[in-house]
């Protein structure tokens, strides 16, 4: 890594309050003093039980990943997690604002469509909001889209790239199959079936696990990919592109998932070209997702604006 930046990041789950139900909390801390490819240290923390431990864990961190919270059970929507996870994200982001305000923040906890706006509002209240450094992790949607398309079209998975835009719940997840690389032709039936499967893949896993949680392991893979991309960007790699749910002006919504270029300072550019020349199917789906995504964003903002956060 360039001399200017020591890459330190935490990944895992932070327990922020004594009254919380404790279920196997863990955290990892990596320190790379020179180059993230050669970590100089790895520290595992068995649990973080109080604010001072959380503060110590976050000091000097460049990338914070927040996967904390409850997962869905069959029959639930991601929005059904709002009441519990909104407060968890609020508290963790408050700690990030206090201890490592310049860090990239990766939000995994659902509902991402609301938890990212919550994080933004908390950071604003703390006076440290940098929209370029707040990311909703939607990488798993891309991983799924790539996988299902590769299977369908007998392509090598490593070659396939399908941008997924919008948000991270149901119809707000919009795979842009017309933008698949390498170019692939789909029938109308294939487009419908693939789109619905990608949108419902999280629910598919929740139902298969029958109450034992959601897509924990594939999410870990997706999170690792997004962290690695962030570290490459922090390391000065000028060719880092990922889809992510970020503050955006690509549509009339304040947050929107799209492909973004990530650099040392966070989002360097939103990539508008994926949204140009959409198929009729995609254009309709884009318009259809906007009311739901808007409501989820507004719900998150309203929640955060009701909180009193000490400056
Ligand atoms: N963005 C995405 O693509 C995905 C998001 N998720 C979301 O990630 C979250 C976690 O899912 P899983 O890892 O499958 O669940 P899990 O139950 O395996 O892990 C959740 C962790 O959060 C911790 N936790 C619970 N309450 C906490 C609190 N108050 N403060 C701090 N930590 C707390 C638990 O101790 C546990 O270690 C869920 O909200 C889930 O919906 C899951 C998969 C994909
Ligand atoms: O579906 C869920 O609850 C977890 C999630 O976000 C996903 O797997 O995409």
UniProtKB/TrEMBL annotation:
It comes from the Eukaryota. GO terms for cellular component: mitochondrion. GO terms for molecular function: L-malate dehydrogenase (NAD+) activity. Residues 138-303 form the Lactate/malate dehydrogenase C-terminal domain. GO terms for biological process: malate metabolic process; tricarboxylic acid cycle. It holds the Pfam family Ldh_1_N. SUPFAM superfamilies: LDH C-terminal domain-like (SSF56327), NAD(P)-binding Rossmann-fold domains (SSF51735). Gene3D superfamilies: Lactate dehydrogenase/glycoside hydrolase, family 4, C-terminal (3.90.110.10), NAD(P)-binding Rossmann-like Domain (3.40.50.720). Homodimer. This is Malate dehydrogenase. It comes from Trifolium subterraneum (Subterranean clover).
């Amino acid at each position: 890594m360039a001399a200017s930046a020591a890459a330190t990041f935490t990944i895992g789950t932070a327990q922020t309050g004594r009254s919380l139900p404790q279920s196997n909390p863990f955290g990892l801390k990596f320190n790379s003093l020179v180059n993230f490819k050669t970590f100089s240290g790895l520290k595992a923390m068995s649990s973080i039980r109080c604010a001072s431990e959380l503060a110590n864990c976050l000091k000097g961190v460049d990338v914070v990943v927040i996967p904390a919270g409850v997962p869905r059970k069959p029959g639930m929507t991601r929005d059904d997690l709002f009441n519990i996870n909104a407060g968890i994200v609020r508290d963790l982001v408050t700690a990030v604002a206090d201890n490592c305000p310049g860090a990239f923040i990766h939000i995994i906890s659902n509902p991402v469509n609301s938890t990212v706006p919550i994080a933004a509002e908390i950071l604003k209240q703390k006076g440290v909001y940098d929209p370029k450094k707040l990311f909703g992790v939607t990488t798993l949607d891309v991983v799924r889209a790539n996988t299902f398309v590769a299977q369908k079209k007998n392509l090598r998975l490593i070659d396939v790239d399908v941008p997924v835009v919008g948000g991270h719940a149901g119809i707000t997840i919009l795979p842009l199959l017309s933008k698949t690389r390498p170019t692939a032709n789909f029938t109308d039936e294939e487009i419908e079936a693939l789109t619905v499967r990608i949108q419902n893949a999280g629910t598919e896993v929740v139902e298969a696990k029958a109450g034992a949680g959601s897509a924990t392991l594939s999410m870990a893979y997706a999170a690792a990919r997004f962290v690695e991309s962030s570290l490459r960007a922090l390391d000065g790699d000028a060719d880092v592109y990922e889809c992510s749910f970020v503050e955006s002006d690509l549509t009339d919504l304040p947050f929107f998932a799209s492909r973004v270029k990530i650099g040392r300072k966070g989002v360097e550019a939103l990539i508008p070209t994926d949204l140009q020349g959409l198929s009729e199917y995609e254009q309709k789906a884009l318009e259809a997702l906007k009311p739901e995504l808007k409501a989820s964003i507004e719900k998150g903002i309203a929640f955060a604006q009701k909180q009193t956060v000490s400056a």
